[in-house]
Fold this protein.
Amino acid sequence: MGTAIAGFRSPTLEVDRLLDDLRTRIIVCCGSGGVGKTTTAAALGLRAAQRGRHVVVLTVDPARRLAQSMGLTSLDNTPRPVPIPGADASAPGTLHAMMLDMKRTFDEIVESHADPDRAAQILANPFYQSLSSSFAGTQEYMAMEKLGQLRRADSWDLIVLDTPPSRSALDFLDAPQRLSRFLDGRLIRLLAAPGRAGGRAYMRVVNAGFGVFTGVLTKVLGAQVLRDVQTFVSALDTMFGGFRERAEETYRLLQTPGTAFLVVATPEADALREASYFVERLSEDRMPLAGLVLNRVHSTPAAHLSAARSLAAAEVLVPATAPDGSRSCRGDGARGDGGHQIAATALRLHAERLQLVAAERRLAQRFMAAHPGVPIVEIPAQPEDVHDLPGLSAIGESLASR
Amino acid sequence: MSARDTDWEGVRLHVVTGKGGTGKTTVAAALALALAGRGRKVLLMEVEGRQGIAQLFDCPPLPYDERRVAVAPGTTHHAGGDVYALAADPESALIEYLEMFYNLRHAARALTRFGIVDFATTIAPGLRDVLLTGKAAEATRRKVNGEFTYDAVVMDAPPTGRISRFLNVSSEVSGLARVGPIRSHADTVQRVIRSPLTAVHFVTVLEEMPVQETLDGIAELRGLPSGGLQLGGIMVNMVRPVPLPGDDLGKAAGGSLDAGELSLALKAAGIDDEAVPGGRSALAVSLATELAGYAREALAADGQRRRLAGAARPVYELPRIPDGIDLAALYRLAESLREQGAA
């Protein structure tokens, strides 16, 4: 196998060792959008199950065919069993997969923490409905919440979490706190019951600003919205503190050694920059980083044939520019013989591939130089999207074969 | 000879959406450059606080202020045009709104110190959207001395998954503010967005998930109740040229290319290599493998192309630019959009 990335020596991420280690209880796949987090999470889950673990993969937004291949047809918050191709009979593992339904997860928290009347009141509140389905950060918070639930259920010995699609990988760590801060915040308490918070001197100041505040809100949104928020907050009052506590509890769970963060990136500038931020942030937050999965790495089986030589040879076979100045058409059967035509195309594409490989190598080396201790594993680029279990299984094998 | 109409002649607000990672901001910028081509003045607007435009045009972070970021190249018949850029954020838009409608600028500024504006836009997610689309609508309709300030506004909008909610804000806002004054503001914005002055374009790449999202997004907008939005074009980004004619492509993808013929051709080109059993050169086998990968990619891309055709919208293809997007690359993409009639 041609190693696409040579030069800097980063330690190799030993995936099978990570998966086989029974102390590994949670694997979190994070990274910016579009780098293949979901596929990687699914491939890791499948590989672990093939090696005898009892795995549940929690995905957030899978491609339709990938979801179907795992038997997930709807966002129903229920772990579904997935058949394992090539399971080792001597170590029978199991695989479940589920898609997160953030609204339902939120509803369940409300239902389990409030008496039925109050729960019904909250669920019917328009402000709650927009918060639970569209607040930036709700999805991340609920992914964390679900993770905590699955961990407490203790029905699986490994949970693989695919984080929500977002521009920034950091959102996954920041968003839950944002939501709990918001729900626990002084402002929302003030809004619910202005008389109750803080001391008297403090209240005079705040109340002065607060009158303006509610005035502005009423002007812009109308009094109804304010009433909805107030009703919501007072109904939710019993759960306050609960939100922050839960977010903090899951946060601590992520810091335990049983958790392994895998940062997924493609060898592209934006994705690796995000990966760098995330690696730094994990270390600041003392979160256990297992390594970087470099997805969709290109390679060439003919690395010894240089770009310059292939382009020159292609030019000998089929000149790119015809003598009359017009470009020759690549598919023009009238020119030269078909073998030459195809060979010239293959040579030109080879030159292009070499340039791509070199560009990817430069970017990866920059990352390695900045984060020398971070173990890395590569997944080769696939010509087609992966959307079935054998395809996932093949990715699992390539992850382990380094 | 007078220039023919472009596909979106008369459209003044171009909303550009797409799945993350498809190059939405790049395409929006290229479209703005293309529209500015004939001596026109175009505003390129971002709404997600990402400073993507500043990165793209390699300039310092943009304030909440319209600044010129690029000059579109002129032709022999026309002078070049200007692209202005604006990074809109809900907080500034709210302050502007309060000032315009209630003369509340000072109060609003004081309130931001408490983080209250952020709070207000947070408790009503639809408010955030209506403020941003409101800003776009305002720039679209703005006139000075009876003349439009901008010939067109291009909005780098939220991703496909959120676009319908982002644009179809009136129902959500009216759910939150059933009788509030923001309601009438939202209605005004809707009149612009749902008029023939506005078109929603989708950016995608030829891969399964972005194509699916595009098709879902188009279906969603089509399914909107009466007075729906005008669908724009599909901009397919990062397209690679098809390496081989149809027959050979299939053969190459299936691995049934004649490696012997390839060996001979390589020999003719002066590239000799050690022979493997069967008389073919090892190099020919390697190159055939590589070509097979390309051919399979091309066939998969073709499959996605056919799926997009099902949406029955104009499709514009933009070439993959291997060395990263700089200003020169943006001009190239803009030119490509112009040639295809998008601008």
About this structure: Chain B touches chain A through 74 residues (CB under 8 Å).
